Amino acid sequence: MSNQNPASHATRILVLNSGSSSVKYQLLDMHDGARMAVGLVERIGEETSRLVHTPLTDGGEQRERTAPIADHGAALKAVAEELAADGLGLDSPELAAIGHRVVHGGLKFSAPTVITDEVLAEIERLVPVAPLHNPANITGIRTAQALRPDLPQVAVFDTAFHTTMPEHAARYAIDAETADAHRIRRYGFHGTSHAYVSRKVAQLLGKDPAEVNVIVLHLGNGASASAVAGGRCVDTSMGLTPLEGLVMGTRSGDIDPAVVFHLERVAGMSTDEIDVLLNKKSGLVGLCGDNDMREIRRRIDEGDQRAQLAFDIYIHRLKKYIGAYYAVLGRVDAVAFTAGVGENAAPVREAAVAGLEELGLAVDAGLNAVRSGEPRLISPEYARVAVAVVPTDEELEIARQTYSLVNSAVHD
After folding, report:
1. pLDDT tens by residue, 343-361
2. Fewer CB within 10 Å: N-end or C-end of the chain?
3. pLDDT score of 4
4. What's the rounded Cα separation, in Å, for the pair 337 and 200?
5. pLDDT tens-place string over residues 66-112
6. Is 158 marked active-site?
């Protein structure tokens, strides 16, 4: 593959997030960070495939296609057609690079990386530790390479931000030779979000990121916590896979490993069945049948005890991680809530901080109730530790990292 440097005037970045049956995309102009188009292709490979495309320049209107899309190649070609219809085609000389979200980069990739054959081979070697995500990411990369072989393709890894964890935080207490032979350690995920939010918190406090210690709580259907000391991750809740840590929408989070052996011996469940149970039938959906926090709160308001217990378990785990990361950091300047639940569920934020006044944490009820798309503080002025809500922007972070990398190559 050719990796020619983009022209110096090229400021557009196409961000691709390829899932197993979907492609999310955004086209951004890094001159000012403005979004030019956003879209989603879903149910790839099915008869009910759907593409929703929204141009964000010149008052464009959302367009939708509902027709079979056979594979990722067809999906990206359809995306290219939609962009071209808005004068934003992939053949534009203003397109500097394509940035790809790649879930697992192992220990080798601690920064955004221009994709070469060797890089792609290493991403493939990591498939056993990211079987749900890396294959789809690889498919998206190869498809984009075929469409624009002359354009730099950049991988931005979910795990990269967490590679700064010290060994005592990243290692599991199992036989070291076995762990090393099979790459078993804590890698962490949601790294682009944790990086973006921790930096935004520092801006909110008017400080340099190197001066700020922050606990970031990324609470979506997938959920993770991180302890960030002076801009560097020193601990995170997800591990070898995104299953470890907090209670999530469909994932169990922390669990006694012996539960797996017990289910195999006593329930006669296969490894694959246990995998599905813990990843897709556990967490909030396993506890109460719903993984949408809005629905769970509605049920709680109606007196539903199963929903209440699910919420209480979710909050209990969250508090444990806040306390643990407070101890890891020693000094905490802020706790930041982000992602779908973290940004929008005021009751979750209130409950997570309740009772932690001795740690300097408090939430102002009025500020917490305000809905806004802007980063903001929700703690009272007297609170020793700031509590913040910071809308995450993983696509912008990927675009920034991609543009910075290819732009530096232009000027080398």
Report:
1. 999 999 999 999 999 999 9
2. C
3. 43
4. 12
5. 999 998 888 988 999 999 998 888 888 999 999 999 999 988 899 99
6. yes
Catalytic residue among 158, 290, 333, 393: 158
Structure tokens of 226? 């991180």
| Placement of tokens 């995450």 in the chain | 392
Cα angle value 55/61/63 (rounded, 5°)? 85
Q: What is the pTM of this model?
A: 0.91
Rounded-to-integer distance, Cα 169 and Cα 296, Å: 34
Please tell me the total number of residues recorded for the chain in this structure: 412
Is pLDDT of 310 > 60? yes
Using the predicted structure, report yes or no on whether residue 132 has a pLDDT greater than 70: yes
Q: Is the dihedral of CA 135, 64, 84, 74 positive or negative?
A: positive
For 294, phi and psi rounded to 5 degrees?
-65, -40
HEC string for the chain: CCCCCCCCCCCEEEEEEECCCCEEEEEEECCCCEEEEEEEEECCCCCCCEEEEEECCCCCCCEEEECCCCCHHHHHHHHHHHHHHCCCCCCCCCEEEEEEEECCCCCCCCCCEECCHHHHHHHHHCHHHCCCCHHHHHHHHHHHHHHCCCCCEEEEECCHHHHHCCHHHHCCCCCHHHHHHCCCCCCCCCHHHHHHHHHHHHHHCCCCHHHCEEEEEEECCCEEEEEEECCEEEEECCCCCCCCCCCCCCCCCCCCCHHHHHHHHHCCCCHHHHHHHHHHCCHHHHHHCCCCHHHHHHHHHCCCHHHHHHHHHHHHHHHHHHHHHHHHHCCCCEEEEEHHHHHHCHHHHHHHHCCCHHHCCCCCHHHHHCCCCCCEECCCCCCCCEEEECCCCHHHHHHHHHHHHHHHHHHC
Contact status, residue 218 vs residue 237, Cβ threshold 8 Å: no
Residue-wise pLDDT for 236-278, tens only, equals 999 998 999 999 999 999 999 999 999 999 999 999 999 999 9
| Residue 206 pLDDT > 80 | yes
